[in-house]
Specification:
By secondary structure, the protein is an all-alpha fold. It contains five helices and no strands. The N and C termini lie far apart (61 Å).
Length: 143
């Protein structure tokens, strides 16, 4: 059964758009934060460290893939936010600080929601442009 689940997940990733992959990564980082919080409650430092490390790896990847050329101010703000999250994740792990983990989880949830909204707005705008182009072609063809 596990092999089928892995194959399904691999197919999901291979067939996903960049936007879908971004949301999947946010989902993963949020899930790892929640799992780390649970491990912290269970006093399971090994699992806690592993889940924090995995969340940190995703947040680091977000920071590493920022395009500082396009939208420099936006990229700088996100970079600062990702750096803050990495510091908080480190604090959570070293000091066994649940509040730091909860802060990062909350920020990730907010960012995920913002990206979902931005993706939807972009999709709607592209559909409007596409629809407008189709209308222009029909009008031009009628002349």
């Amino acid at each position: 059964m596990n092999a089928y689940v892995n194959q399904y997940q691999n197919n999901q990733i291979l067939n996903a758009s960049p936007e879908q992959i971004l949301i999947m990564l946010y989902d993963g980082s949020i899930r790892f934060c929640r799992q780390a919080i649970h491990a912290m409650e269970e006093n399971n430092r090994v699992v806690q460290a592993e889940k924090i490390s995995r969340a940190m790896a995703i947040v680091s990847e977000f920071a590493n893939t920022l395009d500082h050329e396009a939208g420099a101010h936006f990229a700088e703000d996100l970079d600062a936010l990702y750096s803050f999250m990495i510091r908080e994740l480190t604090t959570a792990n070293v000091k066994n600080d649940r509040k730091s983990l909860e802060t990062v989880e909350s920020l990730l949830v907010d960012l995920r929601e913002t990206w979902v909204e931005a993706i939807e707005l972009n999709r709607t705008a592209q559909q409007a442009v596409s629809s407008s182009d189709s209308s222009d072609k029909r009008v031009a063809a009628s002349f």
